[in-house]
Design brief:
The complex is a heterodimer of chains A (250) and B (456).
Chain A lengths: L2 H16 L5 E2 L4 H6 L4 E2 L3 E6 L4 H15 L3 E6 H7 L1 E2 L1 H6 L7 E6 L2 H11 L7 E7 L7 H14 L2 E7 L11 E7 L12 E9 L5 E8 L4 E4 L25
Parallel strand pairs in A: 3-8, 3-9, 4-6, 4-7, 7-8
Antiparallel strand pairs in A: 1-2, 9-10, 10-11, 11-12
Chain B lengths: L7 H5 L8 H7 L10 H15 L6 E4 L3 E4 L11 H14 L12 H10 L10 H6 L10 H9 L5 H6 L2 H8 L1 H10 L16 E11 L2 H21 L2 E12 L4 E12 L2 H14 L10 E13 L3 H4 L5 H17 L4 E6 L9 E5 L25 E11 L3 E4 L2 E14 L11 E8 L4 E7 L3 E7 L2
Antiparallel strand pairs in B: 1-2, 3-6, 4-5, 4-6, 7-8, 9-10, 9-14, 10-11, 11-12, 12-13, 13-14
The chains are: A alpha/beta (250), B alpha+beta (456).
Keywords (chain B): DNA damage
EC number (chain B): 2.7.7.7
Pfam family, one (chain B): IMS_C
């Protein structure tokens, strides 16, 4: 090991010591958690893009993340998202294993209001997570807005999840992680398995990017690898790597 | 067409309400006529009544053109009755109204005096003296009775009052005698105020009108502190609060906020009003400034002390409630929602999104549909049923996109509630397309297909 490598190792250890304990939540998929350096970071901003016409799957993935984070949940959604992608249902959330009694739903007319409400809600440390569901790419969602959300989340320790429906990822943004989510087919042709997601981790501040097929286990509230999910691996040590080609197509 | 009202100059020229327009034109060719608009007049009167609220909370409308104010216990705030009446008349005149006013022991006496002796203030107990010199018309009786009095030579109220009561009752009925008694201050008829009197209120007057939002919020904080002290004495907290801003030029603005639990903390109340002010579609326009700001508690509930409540509610719960209150003040109660289960199997009615401020833990629990290890039986996102067309049983077309069905499961028959409305039964199917997306489709009467929701 060269001196340079040793230095890097020492710096990494120092950084890991700075991070408060218990700040990461394991999602349940070992390789994914490894890529995330232990799990999803609390008190940070995470961005989830829905693949075109896979809006419900993205919402399901976000619900799963919030289920892992635990605590009361505030779901802020733009009116148009309710019309276009359907209303969030309490029965559906309950079937996924979340407690609807711990959910607050805020309907706002536009993205500006959604961001305003989010920065207020993120000061309330009693919440577990705040989901901000916006349609398209509103002009209010600029770098300043990202920065503001990330700062507010960091200060209170409440996790912010920005759910982007009908939007294409432009590459900007100050999110801790950025995901692109689409539905994945059931494992076999006969049985109805658990909800499955094809997730593409496009940006990861503290680890490599990657691509996984995972499923959400409604019974015990964790993500699980599918048999096919294991085939994908990401190049290690390349935090801003370009997304790996969809290996699951193989 | 007839005249409904005339101004002073027209009255001097001999025009009077009730006169035909044609004869008025014949008498005064230059007469200027405007169409009467009774609803608009009433609205204006209500606005004036709102403004009068800064003198006393007990204001009653006396349509079509009068207001009755109960100033009992309020006159000392304005340096006495005479000064108060003068101030009120002056201020209204300045706003461009023709005003006549009087102050007396009963509402009817004051009204009679206002019409015939503008500006009179009757000392306590001297009502009958003041009213008895007025003409009988001042009693506001029906024209037949007044005519009868005139024929009998009874021209003033005093002369009528001089007759024996038994005679009057026999001839004109007890209603007329009661009207006479009230006018003379012998009986009292309380006015019915148009706004209910709040239990708690605090207000602050400004010699120099304020225009600055910071000062307004600081004032609200101060008033909330005073209100809170009163509430605390009675062991109560406010659930609904109203701030009333009286602008120097007479227009007033009310802002209402509600809380999820009884509150008396000034900082919390100020924060709610700040959210409200921030989110107003038409901002509070101070114009030349507000000269009076008032805070009222419209609805109160018993509220235990913080110390006693320590065990029952945790800090996080309190924080979330405060957040709900803030969001509600900003966006309105219909936008801040929480979910409650409902006792029905109709999918779209199985839960209700209710305003989070009013949500209570219900009797019903959530009912699990799926068995262990199975996929969800209810969709995460529910749409208004959208018609889809089925293509040969292998694909369906929804929103201009063809989805090839890889898996189909069903039917789950859900019968509509026939005792509520007679809708056809639905056969629900779960379908997965080639991309793994899962849809919830239903068939009505065996032929029409609809898409009702999408699974995660």
């Amino acid at each position: 090991m060269s001196l340079k490598d040793q230095k890097i190792m020492a710096l990494r250890a120092a950084l890991a010591a700075v991070e408060p304990h218990g700040v990461r939540v394991e999602l349940g998929v070992p390789r994914l958690d490894q890529a995330l350096a232990g799990g999803l970071m609390r008190g940070a901003l995470h961005e989830v893009f829905a693949s075109p016409s896979h809006e419900a799957s993205a919402a399901g993935f976000v619900a799963g993340l919030c289920g892992r984070l635990g605590g009361p949940l505030l779901w802020i959604r733009q009116d148009y998202a309710g019309l276009e992608c359907g209303e969030l249902t309490a029965t559906g959330l309950f079937e996924l294993g979340l407690d609807p009694a711990r959910l607050l739903l805020l309907r706002v007319p536009d993205a500006a209001d959604a961001l305003k409400a989010a920065s207020d809600a993120l000061t309330c440390a009693a919440l577990g997570a705040v989901v901000i569901e916006v349609m398209g790419s509103p002009k209010q969602l600029d770098l300043v807005a990202y920065r503001r959300l990330a700062l507010a989340a960091g200060e209170s320790g409440v996790t912010a999840v920005l759910l982007r429906q009908a939007a294409t990822s432009s590459g900007i943004g100050g999110a801790e992680t950025r995901w692109l989510v689409r539905a994945a087919s059931s494992e076999d042709d006969i049985n109805w398995g658990q909800p499955a997601f094809d997730v593409d981790l496009q940006r990861n501040r503290h680890g490599p990017a990657g691509h996984w097929v995972i499923q959400w286990s409604c019974d015990d509230g964790v993500f699980r690898p599918t048999d096919r999910g294991a085939v994908v691996s990401a190049p290690s040590d390349r935090p801003f790597a370009a997304p790996v080609a969809e290996a699951s197509a193989a | 067409m007839r005249l409904t009202a005339v101004d002073r100059r027209a009255a001097d020229l001999g025009l009077a309400p009730g006169m035909a327009l044609a004869s008025a034109r014949a008498m005064v060719p230059a007469v200027k006529v405007m169409a009467a608009n009774a609803p608009a007049d009433l609205r204006l009167l209500e606005k004036i009544a709102d403004w009068c609220d800064s003198f006393t909370p007990l204001v009653a409308l006396d349509a079509p053109c009068g207001l009755l104010l109960d100033v009992t216990g309020a006159s000392h705030l304005f340096d006495g009755e005479q000064a108060m009446l003068d101030r009120l008349r002056r201020a209204l005149k300045k706003q461009g109204f023709a005003v006549a006013g009087a102050l007396a022991g009963t509402a009817l006496a004051a009204r009679a005096l206002a019409r015939y002796r503008d500006g009179t203030v009757v000392p306590p107990g001297r009502d009958s003296e003041a009213v008895s010199t007025l003409p009988v018309e001042a009693l506001d009786l029906d024209p037949v009775t007044v005519h009868a009095f005139r024929r009998a030579g009874l021209k003033t109220v005093g002369q009528v009052a001089g007759r024996r009561r038994a005679e009057l009752t026999a001839r004109f009925g007890s209603g007329m005698v009661f009207a006479l008694d009230t006018a003379l201050g012998r009986a009292d008829l309380p006015i019915s105020p148009r706004l209910p009197l709040p239990d708690y209120r605090a207000e602050r007057r400004f010699a120099e009108p304020v225009t600055d939002e910071k000062t307004m919020l600081a004032t609200l904080n101060l008033l909330a502190g005073r209100l809170g002290k009163n509430l605390e004495e009675r062991g109560e907290g406010a659930r609904a609060l109203q701030a009333v801003f009286f602008r120097a030029d007479g227009s007033i603005r009310r802002l209402a906020v509600q809380t999820g639990a009884p509150t008396r903390e000034p900082a919390l109340i100020e924060r709610l009003f700040r959210e409200k002010l921030d989110a107003l579609a038409d901002p509070l326009d101070p114009g030349f400034g507000f000269d009076l700001i008032r805070l009222e508690a419209d609805r109160t509930e018993p509220c235990r002390d913080e110390a006693a409540a320590l065990g029952s509610e945790t800090v996080p719960q309190k924080e979330i409630r405060a957040l709900v209150d803030r969001l509600t003040a900003r966006f309105g109660a219909h936008r801040v929602l929480s979910f409650e289960p409902r006792d029905t199997h109709i999918p779209e009615n199985a839960f209700a999104a209710v305003p989070a401020q009013y949500a209570r833990a219900g009797r019903l629990g959530w009912e699990k549909m799926r068995s262990a290890g199975e996929a969800p039986c209810r969709p995460l996102r529910l749409l208004a049923p959208e018609p889809v067309s089925l293509i040969g049983g292998e694909a369906f077309r929804w929103r201009h996109v063809t989805h090839r069905i890889r898996k189909l499961e069903g039917p789950e028959r859900i019968a509509m509630e026939w005792w509520r409305d007679a809708a056809p039964d639905r056969d629900y199917y779960r379908a997965e397309d080639e991309n793994g997306r899962r849809f919830w489709l239903y068939r009505e009467q065996g032929l029409h297909w609809f898409l009702h929701g999408v699974f995660a």
